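Thread amino acids onto this structure.
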């Protein structure tokens, strides 16, 4: 089929030899489609022919001149030189490392040629060194115009790449557009073929709001959403419905020192409905930090155990998993549930015993880290797998995860990363979403204060008082991304300073510390052996330190709003008022001031995430890097918000069979095909 051309290896193109092909592949241009999707970032204006007395040094210009003389010095290191003229002046064209025969052909003596390149001045003469283009007059149209500029570094020149990309663009067969004409015109888009052509041959390629660019964005979004919806279809297969009376969970609820919020109740009901349903659950609980996701999951677990199945609860770190384990033991104290704890560090002897009990079905609930999902672990009857704080899971991992539990295993994820509405579909389109939208009523709003860093000395008496009152303090140093050493040294300095003021009261964790040492320090803090925890890395997500009331964040403008909100959520979880102090360097930008204001005035993680998205773009939002959203090449949730909505609507309202040719074309184009080609679940 003709359109296979688009998915051919680039080495099949004319003019692409092994060396060039290796070079292009290094730049991730492997297939013809990659050339199609590598848009020019700008154009060079070569459209005007300049007289030789109109030249400007440093500019790229195009001239028309007669070849007057060619000189090929036989002395090494001296360049070859061609002297050209027009009626107004003279110019030297200089070549290093070009062969005489080639140049004689390119510059026929006494004939007019077109030369385009960067003008410089040397030995009192205008000069162009290694011009980008030289051509005869009859081929003028090829050069004298706006020429697209592609992102290239050394190793390939513009002329060469252009010849390849033009070859490709002109050879693209007419595609059976997956979007029908009516839809295209109704939504002010363009056909696929037309938009690709325009993107390469006009300024559209660098204008992300042009019609043709928007068409590409729409395609990219749909490719992504189709993938997610396919993933969903594959996961949400039939299962045996779970049967339970909620007997245990009602008793547990009654014994809690608090009432569930309405939101928690609602989410728990959604989960219970799924558990009793005939399709596998694949759901995520989204709830701001401190909204109380854990207890909801524990209540769901008790129902699943009651129905005769086993459960697994996984936390991202050992310390968090341990915290869940301790809580579970407390919550299920009056039940006969058998609960085990398993991590990579569990002693072999214990591990063997635990694995045996999982396999025999004696263990009802296993809590632990990633170790839970290793190959050699067999469950007798796993009915529910819960993963906490896993906003970082990509689509593919999610799908693999869903496979692990087997056909009757429901899957529940929990995440505290607030996701702006626009991004919800891109991130979690394959899952059902339950939102905990309110915080426990007794929770006080965290007092957020900003302070210039130079007034840091005003803090010490305040901190002293906090320690005296047996409160605990987080001190967050900014992350210096470039170097974990610099990171460490800035945090270490701060540690030394604080340690001097409050001897034996301070602990330090930083990126270079290994997991064990980190957990030792965290445990000390948890056990109140120290009062202040200085850290660089974002403090372990999800850990509940009810005794921490103050968080100081240095250089706070280095963090995104959503991230500051998450950090702030580490405090004020107990009965005392939480305080967050943001330290800033002097001279804050207007934008920075706006950001502080948002944070001071709002307590709503979703609202903050939306604002953060608007102010900083999505690249910086936490949790996005690994989430797969970064895989968007063209779509930007801020610029293309309307298209996100449109694509979502399209996907939800159309029956799409991804095996149909035109759809599989789309998925292949955006590298989504592999993601869903994974084995059936
Ligand atoms: P997160 O959603 O961030 O995981 P947790 O589940 O760790 O939050 O809960 C934070 C704290 O709030 C815990 O100490 C928990 O006992 C408490 N909590 C949970 N639900 C409620 C509620 N409805 N009322 C009061 N406190 C609650
Ligand atoms: Mg949590």
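Threaded sequence (681 positions):
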């Amino acid at each position: 089929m003709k359109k296979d051309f688009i998915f051919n290896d680039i080495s099949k193109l004319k003019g692409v030899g092994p060396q060039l092909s290796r070079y292009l592949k290094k730049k991730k241009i492997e297939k013809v489609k990659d050339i199609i999707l590598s848009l020019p970032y700008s154009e060079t204006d070569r459209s005007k022919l300049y007289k030789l007395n109109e030249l400007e040094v440093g500019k790229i210009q195009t001239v028309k001149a007669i070849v007057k003389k060619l000189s090929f010095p036989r002395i090494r290191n001296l360049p070859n030189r061609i002297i050209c003229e027009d009626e107004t002046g003279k110019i030297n064209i200089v070549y290093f490392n070009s062969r005489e025969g080639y140049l004689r052909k390119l510059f026929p003596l006494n004939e007019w040629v077109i030369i385009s390149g960067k003008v410089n001045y040397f030995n009192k003469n205008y000069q162009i060194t290694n011009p980008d283009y030289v051509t005869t007059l009859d081929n003028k149209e090829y050069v004298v115009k706006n020429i697209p500029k592609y992102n290239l570094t050394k190793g390939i020149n513009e002329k060469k790449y252009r010849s390849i990309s033009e070859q490709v663009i002109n050879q693209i067969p007419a595609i059976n557009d997956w979007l029908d004409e009516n839809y295209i015109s109704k939504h002010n888009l363009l056909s696929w073929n037309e938009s690709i052509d325009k993107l390469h041959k006009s300024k559209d390629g660098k204008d992300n709001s042009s019609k043709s660019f928007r068409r590409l964005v729409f395609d990219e979004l749909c490719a992504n959403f189709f993938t997610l919806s396919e993933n969903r279809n594959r996961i949400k297969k039939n299962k045996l419905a779970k049967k339970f009376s909620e007997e245990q969970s009602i008793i547990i609820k009654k014994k809690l020192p608090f009432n569930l919020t309405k939101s928690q109740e609602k989410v728990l009901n959604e989960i219970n409905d799924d558990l009793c349903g005939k399709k596998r659950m694949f759901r995520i609980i989204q709830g701001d930090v401190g909204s109380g996701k854990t207890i909801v999951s524990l209540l769901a677990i008790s129902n699943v155990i009651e129905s005769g199945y086993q459960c697994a609860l996984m936390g991202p770190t050992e310390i968090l998993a341990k915290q869940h384990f301790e809580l579970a033991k407390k919550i299920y104290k009056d039940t006969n549930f058998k609960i085990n704890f398993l991590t990579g560090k569990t002693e072999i002897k214990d591990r063997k015993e635990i694995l045996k009990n999982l396999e025999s079905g004696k263990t009802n609930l296993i809590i632990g880290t990633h170790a839970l999902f290793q190959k050699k672990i067999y469950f007798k009857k796993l009915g529910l797998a819960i993963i906490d704080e896993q906003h970082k899971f990509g689509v593919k991992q999610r799908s693999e995860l869903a496979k692990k539990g087997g056909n009757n295993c429901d899957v529940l994820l929990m995440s505290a990363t607030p996701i702006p509405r626009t991004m919800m579909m891109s991130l979690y389109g394959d899952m059902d979403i339950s939102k905990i939208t309110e915080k426990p009523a007794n929770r006080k709003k965290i007092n957020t204060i900003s302070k210039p860093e130079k007034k840091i000395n005003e803090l010490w008496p305040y901190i002293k008082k906090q320690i005296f009152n047996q409160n605990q303090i987080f001190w967050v140093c900014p992350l210096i991304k470039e170097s974990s050493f610099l990171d460490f040294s800035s945090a270490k300095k701060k540690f030394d300073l604080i340690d001097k003021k409050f001897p034996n009261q301070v602990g330090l964790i930083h990126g270079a510390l290994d997991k064990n040492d980190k957990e030792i320090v965290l445990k000390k803090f948890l056990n109140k052996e120290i009062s202040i925890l200085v850290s660089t890395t974002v403090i372990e997500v999800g850990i509940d330190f009810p005794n921490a009331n103050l968080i100081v964040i240095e250089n706070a403008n280095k963090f995104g709003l959503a991230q500051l909100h998450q950090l702030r959520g580490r405090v004020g979880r107990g009965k005392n008022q939480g305080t967050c102090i943001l330290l800033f360097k002097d001279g804050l930008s207007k934008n920075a001031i706006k950001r502080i204001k948002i944070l001071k005035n709002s307590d709503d993680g979703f609202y903050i995430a939306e604002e953060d998205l608007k102010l900083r773009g999505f690249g910086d939002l936490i949790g996005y890097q690994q989430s797969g959203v970064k895989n968007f090449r063209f779509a930007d949730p801020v610029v293309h918000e309307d298209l996100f909505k449109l694509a979502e609507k399209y996907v939800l309202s159309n029956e799409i069979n991804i095996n149909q040719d035109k759809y599989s074309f789309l998925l292949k184009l955006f590298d989504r095909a592999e993601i869903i080609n994974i084995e059936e679940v």
